[in-house]
Amino acid sequence: MAKVPVQFTLNGAEKAEFIDSGTTLLHALRDKIGDTSPKGGCHQGTCGACSVIIDGELRLSCLTLAEACNGATITTTSGLSEGGVLHPLQRAFLDAFATQCGFCTPGMIMAAKVLLDHTPNPSREDVVEALSGNICRCTGYEPIIQAVLTAARSNSQNAA
Amino acid sequence: MELRKSYFADQRKDDLHEIGQPRPRSDSPGHVTGKTTYFADRNFPGMLHLKMVRSPHHHARIRSIDTSEAEKHPGVVKVLTAKDVPHNVYTILILIQIGPEDETVLADGKVRWKGEAAVAVLAETERAAQEAAAKVKVDYEVLPAVFDMDEALKPGAPIVNEYHGRNYYLYDSGECRKVRFGDVEAGFAGADHVLEQTYQSSPIEHAPTETTGCIVAPEGNDRFTCYTNTQAMFFTLDNTSIILQMPGNKLHFVGGTVGGGFGGKVDVIVEPIAILGAKLTGRPVCFIYSREEEMQISSPRAAEKVVIKDGVMNDGRIVARKVTGYTDAGAYSRHSPYGAQKGAGHYPGPYTIPNVWIDTYCVYTNRTPSSAMRGFGVTIGDFALEVQMDKLARLIGMDPLEFRFINAYRDGDMKAHRQPTEGAALIECMQEASRAANWPVAEKFMAMSSYAKGA
Questions:
Q1: Eight-state DSSP code of residue A30
Q2: Rg (CA), chain B
Q3: Do A81 and B33 touch (CB under 8 A)?
Q4: Both ends of chain A: CA-CA distance in Å?
Q5: Which domains does chain A have, with CATH numbers?
Q6: pLDDT at B9 over 70
Q7: Residue B455 has what pLDDT?
Q8: Which domains does chain B have, with CATH numbers?
Q9: Smallest CA–CA separation between A125 and chain B, in Å?
């Protein structure tokens, strides 16, 4: 099958790959580039485990064609911590016991990051709305909501 | 949180420092950084993808299977049918002597539920495997099916599973698990009121975010490494060893973090066929359920039917309880004979009742085989029992919590299955619940103890 070149920035690093046309971004990231932090839970855009940030917007990588990401800037949860220091959202998820099996966690953190990037001081309702596309079957939603609110508070304290 | 050691005279004397203190989970740093390795976070060069051809019928005889077109499909490497599986008929609990073997890895001559695996296709890509699976031709003769436990137990019902020869599991105690304690009919005769109610539940799917699957890599030394999200590592290893007639030392199972299981990943379903595929092709094999398969094919919690008949006195004492429980195993046993048996031990509830009669049946129907899920054999029973307790309290005009104090088991009480009660803390839990929920009960109940009799 003819290969298609794709090139994008992933977590600050330039990536270039030849892929089969029609490959999803989820498969390209996991199987080609080796970033397995986005997870495949449904491959049909309903569970949110594959969520990544493309040019500042929350996207489902299982429904995004890799070749449509040429020139894009992509962020995944594996690229959030810097120099071994956890991002405030990662810290908050850790401290609030907001993980159980962990499979939904990278997607949840992506959704939460886009929320806080756009809405630094969200209400509880804002958080619930922002996470509504991410399914946690361990049903640990309450600690997750609390973690996002805590991260927002620590961000605004740092900014003050 | 507070640990009240005063409740338990035999508590160890040294102070413990963990309860009430937050301790970081050891796996959380991996979860929040995306570094935790799940079984599917692996990729091997030359890895094949396995897809199943599944039965579209609830019950049918297989006249013939034609795989010729599928084998010609570009990218297809191997197509497997029943004859390729060394020991095709198995049952998970044979490891603890709960037989007979009653389930096929790949259907052989018959399918007994809609979705049953008939043919496995191995191809270079997921897409090629899917397309080729659609080209397998299976000629079915559709048979009458039964979906309801009451219908399945009627004389003349279609036999779901010939390995049992009847639509219920035959225990060593007969057609059901039995508990007999006291004289239940005398209890009913002497009761002020008798209440019989029927409770039913539907199957429940666990729907873990990570679907069931495994990746198998053939090693250079004739061994196979199987990366799996099974919740039952050694059950799976030992059953695979039986199914493939392969010594256990050829099988290296690697587990790890499971992306949600809830009991739905204790069956031995994907690993044996994936390892067989790796053996016959010499290549790594990936077999992961699609979301649709996870919802439709993986075992749900069993549908249950519970009939409870209680004799109760006006002063609140339950004097007799008769329970008949039915567990819908679907077409195959898997863990259901055990689940139904657990119910038999559990049905008296945490209550001391002098006359108890329990029968629990494990019933076969042409439905998706059911299996473990969070307290299976007990959870639905608890729902039924506690709703029944509320109804009984209402019947005699008593507060439902006080009614439970009167009947709560306490240390030294003999349970219906003849295990003396020890370490019961039900009274103390209910006292705490009464305070926490601001649901006051009479002072005499707050003075009760699981240890000291009286009051």
A1: I
A2: 26
A3: yes
A4: 55
A5: 3-79 (3.10.20.30), 88-159 (1.10.150.120)
A6: no
A7: 43
A8: 48-143+207-296 (3.90.1170.50), 177-204+300-422 (3.30.365.10)
A9: 23
What's the CA gap between A87 and B409, in Å, rounded? 51
Instruction: Give ∠ CA B263-B265-B268 in degrees, rounded to 5.
Output: 125
Give B8's pLDDT tier (boundaries 50, 70, 90).
low
Tell me which residues of chain B have a C-beta less than 8 Å from any C-beta of chain A.
22, 24-25, 27-38, 40-41, 43, 206-211, 257-262, 290-291
Q: B406-441 pLDDT, tens per residue?
A: 999 999 999 999 999 988 899 999 999 999 999 999
Structure tokens, B396: 């005699």
Residues pairing with A5 in the sheet: A18
Per the CB < 8 Å rule, is A77 touching B32?
yes
Smallest CA–CA distance, residue B29 to chain A, in Å, is 7
Across B151-161, average pLDDT: 98
Query: What is the average per-residue pLDDT within A93-103?
Result: 96
Reply yes or no on whether the pLDDT at B193 is more than 80.
Answer: yes
CA distance A36 to chain B (A): 6
Q: Is A77 left (phi over 0), alpha (psi -120 to 50) or beta?
A: alpha
How many angstroms separate the CA of residue A159 from the nearest CA in chain B? 23
B255 contact residues in A (CB cutoff 8 A): none
**Do the beta carbons of residue B358 and residue B384 sit within 8 Å?**
no
% pLDDT > 90, chain B: 91
Q: Per-residue pLDDT tens for B219-240?
A: 999 999 999 999 999 999 999 9
The yes-or-no verdict on residue B133 having pLDDT over 80 is: yes
Give the Cα separation of A74 and A30 in Å (integer): 14
Beta carbons within 8 Å of B142's beta carbon, 6+ residues apart? B57, B59, B60
A6 touches A28 (CB < 8 A): yes
The answer to whether B149 and B363 are in contact (CB under 8 A) is yes
Complex confidence, ipTM: 0.96
Nearest-CB residue to A36 (from B41, B260, B290): B41
Task: Report helix, strand or coil for B371.
Answer: strand
Question: By three-state DSSP, how is residue A27 classified?
Answer: helix
Whole-angstrom Cα distance, residue B328 to residue B305? Answer: 8
